[in-house]
Fold this protein.
Amino acid sequence: MLFSNAALALGLFPLALSHPLEKRQNALPPVNSATDESVLQLALYLEHLELNLYTGGFENFTDAEYTAAGFPPGFRGNVGVIADHEKTHADTISTNLTNAGKTPVPTCTYKFNYSPSST
């Protein structure tokens, strides 16, 4: 059984190598319908919310405050990395909507109660 599986795998390997790989395009997909736009607008709204939350979590606390609250060393840096990712997500969705001739939903003003943890 082991031999037949190995033989099958080795027999299929040349076929995998001979199949041409398609080049992945980095183009954004088109916004073709009102549903596409609605989904992207909602996604953008949520990305703005996440961006604001993580940016605030990074800017309003020090490494020492995170450590005192029980988080491991370097946790604040991870929050900053996530904030950067959220900015990239928001920028990408905004670009896609703008390129489709749509007006991206504006960023709201969010008010999170950032205070050091007491527990």
Remarks:
- The CA atoms of residues 51 and 85 lie 8 Å apart.
- The mean pLDDT is 81.
- Helices lie at 2-18, 34-59, 63-68, 75-99.
- Residues 34-59 form the longest helix (26 residues).
